[in-house]
Amino acid sequence: MIAVLKQKKIAALAILFALAFPLLIPNNYYLHMMTLSFIWMIAVYGLNLLAGYTGYLSLAHAGFFAIGAYTLAILTVKAGLNFWLAFFLSCVISSFIGFLVGLVALRTKEHFFAIYTLCVGYIIYLVIDKWDSLTGGVRGFIGIPSPANIGPISFQTPVSQYYLVLFFLLLVVFVMYRIVYSLTGRTYIAIRNSEELALTIGISTMKDKLVSFVLSIFFTSLAGALYASFIRFLGPDIGYISVMFDLLIFLLVGGIGTMSGPVVGTLLMTSISQQLQFLQDYRMLIFGPILTLLVIFYPRGVVGGVIHWKTKRTENNRDSRVGKISSHSSNEKQVKEG
Amino acid sequence: MEFFIQQLLNGLTVGSVYSLVALGLTLVYGILHIPNFAHGALYMMGGYVTLTMMSKSGLPYWLAIVISMIVIGTLGVLLERLVFYPLRDAPPLHDKIAAIGILLFLEAFAQFVWGADYQTMPTPYGKVVNLFGLTLTAQRLLIITSTIAIMVLLYFFLKKTFIGATIIAMSQNREGANLVGININKVAMMTFMISGSLAALAASLASPINLVFPGMGHLVILKAFVIIILGGMGSVPGAIIGGYILGFSESLGATYISNDYKDIIAFVILVIILTIKPTGLFVRRGQS
């Protein structure tokens, strides 16, 4: 109980800090970086739902990020739709494409799924790159409008855009929280732990996997649409494998299959990237080994490591005090953490 | 008709390179059951090592290839020892991510050492040869013949030698192989050695036709994955046949459908296969 309260306190503090950030540090550059990392966080949450909780490593998410972004761009610039309608539609369209892909992709498992989605991601990238008339090809897509006003609120200034993105991030975190701690979330974790067992106890795994896949893509394409309206320029590179790897690194450093992992990982890695800017293209010289070492020694990232350490400590405390009952409650805790 | 046969020959060349890469990938998959995403990076490193040997040390083409095969083979063994061995009991997700980490590192490393520019590899086999009324460069002929030679060698190694038999045994049943006294670690290292050498050879043979650059392994590795799914994960003949199938369909597709989208053909084939049969074609019996 105390642990839960403590977690809520930390979450509340984090939200308060995020809300006060533009007032505390009135610097447009940092505000820009923060907004961008919030957008990445949303995408990483999408990936986390599928890879972390359902146990299916999709390597196509950068592709769906790009689909979300490009759909918004095409709908607003070429079709001239109202911004928020286009925004909503771009998420729906990407999710629908995701649904079609998922129907086929989810019939495969483990390695096949990873390879299949890797190829799907590459197809998406190639199509964006080659379909000149629709996407602008290598030249990129310029002139995407920033978010339209909602009533009296306008989103032209960096600060207002920051709050808009923050709003969507909090929404996504809230929805993720509700999903993960509901029966649906438990179902996903059951599928991750053993798909055969999940089938045996009466879970319709195909349906649940598909829902998880589509939801995960919905979040990722939402991030893509936000990215398009925030950066206002798109190149085919945002669908490339390197973006996929960035998302993976964010997720793994923070902690795959944890609630706060995406936030921690993205903040940590984007700020380290800032420090390592002089390395530019060579930053993977450091990030690549980090990724590998992390998987070997801390497979559940920073957050996973902290949780592990805490569980061990409380278990030791409890063992010395209560003894018998502890095994039951620690089991329960493990279930909660997934 | 002549044009058509010319395209078939092109397909044979491309298919040879694909087969060599896919062979290394499928051997490792057969032994360790990990899709080695870093294999494309080994391919890329192989190209650069050969190029450096030729340009910096002035070694002849063939000697450079042999050195490159040894270097990349050793690199493969190092990867097995340092990364995949510690992860042997981890969930499959971790192997994949670790391999991706290696891939990122090696690519950045190549860019750091050799720069991001596209480089050409000189070859002593640049002459144009006339064969039965067909024109092709000696390099292409070399690719086709040496690939076949290597495949025959590999076949005899796997089927006729004791060490080769241990590799087959381990891919059939890991525990069983261990029970009859096969040193699993040695076999795994050996397999990575062969796999790395094959990648280096493929890159060195293909580079004079294509170019050498840090991202040269991307498409090749993706296609190699398509091939081993096509031919059955872990199956050696499957990798060879799959490589040639893909080579032919690409060169014909590029001519008769669209040159722009020729790289998509491989992935479309994959999507179709996995749609019909989610476990891939030619899955060996008794293995999932």
From TrEMBL, chain B:
GO terms for biological process: amino acid transport. The keyword DNA repair does not apply. Signal peptide: none annotated. GO terms for molecular function: transmembrane transporter activity. Keywords: Amino-acid transport, Cell membrane, Membrane, Transmembrane, Transmembrane helix, Transport. InterPro entries: ABC_transp_permease, BCAA_transport_permease. It is a multi-pass membrane protein. Coiled coil: none annotated. Its main location: membrane. GO terms for cellular component: plasma membrane. It is found in: Cell membrane. It holds the Pfam family BPD_transp_2. The keyword NADP does not apply. The chain crosses the membrane at residues 12-31, 61-85, 97-116, 128-158, 187-213, 220-244, 264-283. Belongs to the binding-protein-dependent transport system permease family. LivHM subfamily. This is Amino acid/amide ABC transporter membrane protein 1, HAAT family. The lineage of its organism: Bacteria, Bacillati, Bacillota, Bacilli, Bacillales.
